[in-house]
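Supplementary Note 3. Input sequence used for the single-chain structure prediction.
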Amino acid sequence: MTSDRDTTVDDLKASAARFCDERDWGQFHNPKDLAIGIASEAGELLEIFRFKTSEEVGELMLGHRMEDVRDELADVLYFVLRFSQVTGIDLSAALEDKLAKNALRYPADKVRGDNRKYEEYLTHP
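The predicted structure, written as discrete structure tokens, is reproduced below.
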């Protein structure tokens, strides 16, 4: 069994590509359909938590539904990996770039403990 510690993003992309190649699914994996897949699978993950209280979510995460959460999260990751392969997006670079942009939008000394969007705290400090 693999783990995050010993698996690279490239390893994950290769696994997703192999899975698709074995099934000849590349023909269905254009950016639009992969983006739909990301949103659809994220929706399925969200559905597990819909209308749950914080207490119910805590129980869910420790109970039998945890496997469902794990599976849906894996489905989201699969589509993210495939999207990045098809479009040539380097996920590590994209994340680092986005974190740098967000660091400018959300300076830690100004937003610590505040979860508002940056437009909100700029206009209503």
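The first helix runs from residue 9 to 23. DSSP finds seven helices and no strands in the chain.
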